[in-house]
Amino acid sequence: xxxxxxxxxxxxxxxxxxxxxxxxxxxxxxxxxxxxxxxxxxxxxxxxxxxxxxxxxxxxxxxxxxxxxx
Length: 70
Known about the structure:
By secondary structure, the chain is mainly beta.
């Protein structure tokens, strides 16, 4: 399964995509907040989003799956 995993721990500040959306490599899909800084998380490759596994306000750890691709 193609997954996008978090490279750091933080709180989900925004979710910029939904299931079914087409994304391109480099597109911001989620913004995390850590130590009062907003850090964009970008798609490593393009594809169709199958499932978004995080919600605004969730705390995620490094290595947690943010979303999956078809």
